[in-house]
Specification:
It is a single chain. By secondary structure, this protein is an alpha+beta fold. It has three domains: about 45 residues, no CATH class; about 60 residues; about 40 residues, no CATH class. It contains six helices and five strands. The longest helix is centred in the last third of the chain and has 14 residues.
Length: about 150
Amino acid sequence: MILDGSYPRALRAGGYRAVCGSGLCALTGLCTFRGALPQGAPTSPALSNLVNVPLDEALSALACRSGGLYTRYGDDLAFSWPSGAVTFDLEANVRAELLALGYCLNPVKGWRVWRVDKGDVPCVTGVHLGHDGCLHPDPALEREVARLRRRTRF
């Protein structure tokens, strides 16, 4: 998601210049591959959260303007409101914040809006948020988990 592909540069841009000489650059060099976080590395979520503090603060403030909440899981961004419509152009504002911080929306994932009051069932990170208040895994995800379980039985 980082446009310039330079993870250490993103750390410094996020305000971590002062500690770079104290080993942070060496640590990021050990935890990255070709300037990016390897997918699935155990360090990836913690380093992503560290780098994305400015993003999370900006998007939380944006959602808060109209009584909403912002959450992020990895690179999945979610905004929610208890009821009613958003009172401003959220998508344009989110895109502007992302661009200002060197990010862009993934063109494959795109921008989706679910209206629970219209019967939509939101899906975030492959989990459906049911009207019953429970989380329901996507059927395709359940099939894949079952397939993997069958393959790993001894």
